[in-house]
Structures are given as structure tokens and as C-alpha cells.
Amino acid sequence: MKFGSDLCDAPTEREFATSMIMTSVVILIVALAIAVSVTWYTTKGYEAHIHQQAIRTSVILPLVIVPLCTAIVGYQGFANHRRMLAVSKLARTDDMTGLANRRAFMHAATQMFRDTDFEYSGLCLFIVDLDHFKQINDAHGHETGDVVLIHAAKQIELAAPEEALVARLGGEEFAVLMPYENITQLHQRAEAIRHQVAATPCEHQSISIRVSASVGVGIAHPRDTVSSVLSRADDALYEAKDKGRNRFVIAA
């Protein structure tokens, strides 16, 4: 699952437009009912043609004024709503890679933990850390380092299954949370991410830069929290680094 508007509590643009239309219809019905009722009782003693003209006017005015006012208010509200969505997206998105940031990941991962029935399915959390990234910055500069980070983020997204939550935790460290069916599938998915990063060089300014990644894997259990699984995955990541990097290790 790629991070999107589902992580935002604000309604989508379609939901907002639907809400505005429904509000407009309700206001129009209420305005018509009030206008016709008031006109009917205040002019019922008048001559028939005056009474009928007043009734027609009481119908026409709301039909013109209410949609016009609603359109004006709705346009401004829609513009404000789009700005709110943009700000919300900035608050939960890593501005460099376009992935979710740590805050958004923790929010979505916590919800995923709550929704998972551990009797029938499993969850695993990968911490993916680029190997020797400081050397890339030192050799090619931080601008090139940023390009490599963006490239690596895309490779991790490509290798992760559609239902995975993918985020940048900070620096050169990424997180991937996904369901899995068995230990064989878990191994395959960890290897797929490791291989995708290592096998796909970053091409930048006529330079081909290869980078590998170490992966620490934490398996979630029924009483776990996101933080506890992150901690185990982090321990496994350090073990992968100690064993020579460019590999994955599953936490005991």
C-alpha cells in the first residue's frame, strides 16, 4: 500500500465536492420551503394574480440565489480544502524521496498492527540501510548523495509488494512493513529488496554509482508494538552490518 490520502483525516476532493453538493441541495430545499410558506401566508389575502406572482417569485429567487451563493462559498472552500490537503501531505511526506516520513509510517503501521489478526496472518518489518553511504557523500558530494537516496527509495518501492508500507525513517534508513504468509516468502521479499538496490546502479552526471543495502528484519507477534518490532529489526540490521553488509538478517 503506497502512502496517500488514506493517511490523512481530511476528506478527499471527491468527498468534499459531494458534501458541498448535498449541503447546497439541503439549503435550497429549506430556503424554498421557508420562502413559499412565508409568501403564501403573507399574500393569501391579496388578489389571485398578485398572490400567484408572489409565489412564483418566492420560488425563483432561492433557485437563483442559493446555487450562486453556494457556488461562491464552495469555490473558496474547495481552494482552502486543497491547500489543507497539500499542507497535510507535506506534514507526512519526506520531501526528498516522496515516501512517507517517520511520523506517517508510525501512524499507519500502528493502524496496521491493530487490524491484523495474528492467528491467520503475519507482519514483518524491514529496516533497510544503505551501506557506506557516507563514502558516497564524501566522494561525490551531498547533491549526488541526495540523488542516490532518491534512486534507492524508488528501488525499494519497486521491490516491495503493493500492500507494503514504505517510508524513509531518516538519513539513509528506510522502513518496509508488510504482511507475509510463511518464512520462505519473508526470505524472498527481503532478498528482493536487497537485490533490487544492489543490482541497479544510480546514473547521475555520466557517473554510475552502485550502492548496496543491509536489511534487518523483525517479525511481529500478537503482543508487539511497532516500536518493539522496530527495535528488533534494528538489532538485526546491526548484525547484518557486522557480517559484512549487503545482506539481510532476521531477528531471533
Q: Indicate the low-confidence ranges by residue numbers.
A: 2-8
CATH superfamily of the largest domain: Reverse transcriptase/Diguanylate cyclase domain
Helix/strand order, N-terminal first: HHHEHHEEHEEEHE
Characterize the overall form.
Answer: elongated
What gap, in angstroms, lies between the N and C termini?
27 Å
Helix count equals 7
Mean pLDDT: 84
Biggest sheet features: 5 strands, mixed
* Helix fraction bin: 55-70%
Properties at a glance:
252 residues, alpha+beta, Alpha-Beta Plaits, 2 domains, five-stranded mixed sheet, two-stranded antiparallel ribbon, 7 strands, disordered N terminus
Can you characterise this structure?
The protein is of the alpha+beta class. It has two domains: 5-92; 102-250, 2-Layer Sandwich (Alpha-Beta Plaits). 60% of the residues lie in helices and 15% in strands. It has seven helices and seven strands; from the N terminus they run αααβααββαβββαβ. It has helices at 13-43, 48-92, 102-115, 133-140, 142-159, 183-199, 226-242; strands at 122-130, 165-170, 173-180, 202-204, 207-209, 213-219, 248-250. Helix 1 packs antiparallel against helix 2 (48-92) and helix 5 (142-159) runs antiparallel to helix 6. The two termini are 27 Å apart. Mean pLDDT is 84; it is low at 2-8.
